[in-house]
Amino acid sequence: MALTKQDIAERICSQLGFPKKQSTEITENLLELIKSTLSAGDDVLVSGFGKFCVREKNERKGRNPATGKDLMLRPRRVVTFKCSGQLRNKVNGK
C-alpha cells in the first residue's frame, strides 16, 4: 500500500498534534516547495532520506511500441532520486 498525501497529513496531525486543516496545509506547502525547487532546475537534498536531482536528457531515437515506427524523442528534463545510506540500510533491515 502506498503512502498518500492524506496519510502524511493524518500522521502530522496525530503525531505532532497539529489540527487536521493545518496538517494538510503543511503537507501541501512542503510538496509545492519541492516541486517548485525541482522545476527551477535545483536539487532537493533531505538528509537521512535522499536527493532528488533534475537531469537533462538529450534528443534520442525511440520506437512506438504499438506500431513499431521509429521516431525522435524530444529533449527533456527528468527527476531522479538517490536514496541515502541510512534509508538504504533501514529498507534492508540493517
UniProtKB/TrEMBL annotation:
Keyword Amino-acid biosynthesis included in the entry's annotation: no
Molecular function via GO: DNA binding; structural constituent of chromatin
A single BP term in Gene Ontology: regulation of DNA-templated transcription
Protein's UniProt name: Integration host factor subunit alpha
Gene designation per UniProt: ihfA
GO CC term (a single one): cytosol
The family this protein is said to belong to: Belongs to the bacterial histone-like protein family.
Alphabetized SMART domains for the sequence: BHL (SM00411)
Domain of life: Bacteria
Keyword Transcription regulation annotated: yes
Keywords recorded for this protein, A-Z: DNA recombination, DNA-binding, Transcription, Transcription regulation, Translation regulation
